[in-house]
Amino acid sequence: MFHYKTSLKIAWKPCIEAKLTAQTKGMNIIALHGGLDTSRSRSFMEILERAALDGFVLLAEGRVPAVEAVLNVLEDSPNFNCGFGAVLNMDGEVELDASICDGETSRFAAVAAIRDVRRPISVARRLMEETSQVILAGDGALKFARKHGFPKDNCISEEQLDAWRKARESLARGEKPAQNLYTGLAYHGDTVGCVVWDGKGLTAASSTGGCSLKLPGRVGDTPSLGGGVYATKLSAVVCTGIGESFVETLTAKFVDEKIAGGAHPQQAVELALRRLAELKGAEGGILAVDAQGRIGSAFNAGQFPVVVMEEGRVRQGFEPVNLRRALFAH
């Protein structure tokens, strides 16, 4: 879509910039992604669309209830790497991360490496609204969840358990496991994220099981403010990929800084992915919306399903920009 120079600068054609500016529609936007290398088959996209609609129904109550509703749908589905059906760590356990960042109030809350809770995004919301704490992890996050009525829930799906067993067998033979790092399976679903603009402010939220076969206690970019999630009065940004690369480069914050400097969100996310590839050689997917309701989405992996809903209607034909060939061609 854009012509890249060898530096991080992008030469935008005026006609393309005008077209992107003209994409601003409606007075509210809910945009969400299903993660890297997640199927874009109709059955997967329908779940994303239903999640967006659930968020739209609650948007009148606020941006935070809306993003929570969106991610709850995906956390309940075994098709995505969050909540039930998330990837297993090296010990065969599901440990989840989730976070919410509201740009208008500058509030942020996250839970990390939490076990036996199906909807960690709801725990993060409770932490944001009822305490002054910002991040709870491990046993502390679990105790907080139980205290506030979140029941014990086994998040291990049979499909992920079978994949974990096969991976451990491969490792025992000295072989590299065949499964996808993002999805835990040969081909399935990854970290999810959502950005919301209601015409007044911006909110970002993300939920994940992390990367397959991670070390117990590992925390990725989802609870890292500025790494995998960020929201200000100017933008809301969510990222997905191998979290360490996003944390070490503060990629979500980089996107916001570019938007603050006048870049269109599409330009900002593409710059961020090029920077990520140059600094870390890493794959990723980024979704952003700004205070004008303009959207940016791009990735450099296999697939990256994105749904955009404006005023309760799904924007037909929307697809994120695929930069894989441009960034990794040899």
Q: What does this entry look like structurally?
A:
With about 325 residues, this protein is an alpha+beta fold. It has a single domain (about 5-330), classed as Glutamine Phosphoribosylpyrophosphate, subunit 1, domain 1, CATH 3.60.20. It contains ten helices and 15 strands. The strands form three sheets. It has an eight-stranded mixed β-sheet with strand order 6-5-4-8-7-3-13-14, covered by helices on one side. The protein starts with a strand and ends with a helix. GO terms for molecular function: beta-aspartyl-peptidase activity; hydrolase activity, acting on carbon-nitrogen (but not peptide) bonds, in linear amides.
Strand content: 15-25%
Q: What is the H/E string? A: EEHEHHEEHEHHEEEEHHHEEEEEH
Report the CATH topology name: Glutamine Phosphoribosylpyrophosphate, subunit 1, domain 1
The CATH homologous superfamily name equals: (Glycosyl)asparaginase
If you average the pLDDT, what whole number results? Answer: 89
How does the overall form come out from the CA principal axes? globular
